[in-house]
Design a protein that fits this description.
The protein is mostly helical and about 60 residues long. It contains 1 helix and no strands. The chain is flat and about 55 Å long.
């Protein structure tokens, strides 16, 4: 049989890498904000159609 003593050792902790930042045009920024607004609106409309009674669950 082969040695398995080192197989399951914890890996050393790594420093978290810094996040990247990019520059975007104002048009892209506005389009992204609009997309977020539309998604929130869709979620709200979807939530209105869900049953409000949570007491029926077993």
């Amino acid at each position: 049989m082969s040695e398995t003593g080192d197989t399951f050792k914890k890996a050393p902790k790594r420093k978290p890498s810094k996040g990247k930042s990019i520059a975007v045009s104002p048009e892209m920024r506005e389009a992204y904000a609009e997309m977020i607004r539309q998604r929130a609106e869709k979620e709200e409309v979807y939530g209105r159609h869900l049953p409000q009674d949570e007491t029926r669950r077993r």
